[in-house]
Amino acid sequence: MTLSQIKFSFLRNCLWGFMPSWKLATAFAAFVFFGLSVVWVYLDNSPPAWDQGLYLYQATILHNTLIQNGFFDFFISIFNLDRGRVPFLPAVVQPAFYFFGPSLDAAVITLNFTWFILAWALFGIARELVGPNAGDKAGFFTFVLFGLHPLTTMLSHNYLVELPFVTFVCASIYSLWLLNKTQKYKWSVISGIFIFLGLLTKVTFVAFVLPSFIFLVYCNIRKLSVGTTFVLFIPVIFFAILAGLYYFYNLRQILEMTILLSSRSMAQLYGFGNPFDIHVMLEYLRNVFTIPTMLVASFFAVVMFISRVIRSIKRDDKVGDNFQAQALINVLFLWLIIPFILATFGEIKDPRYLYPCLVPVFVFAGAMV
Question: Which parts of 131-277 fold into alpha helices (H)?
Answer without folding.
Answer: 135-148, 150-156, 162-182, 185-199, 205-223, 226-232, 234-249, 251-261, 264-269
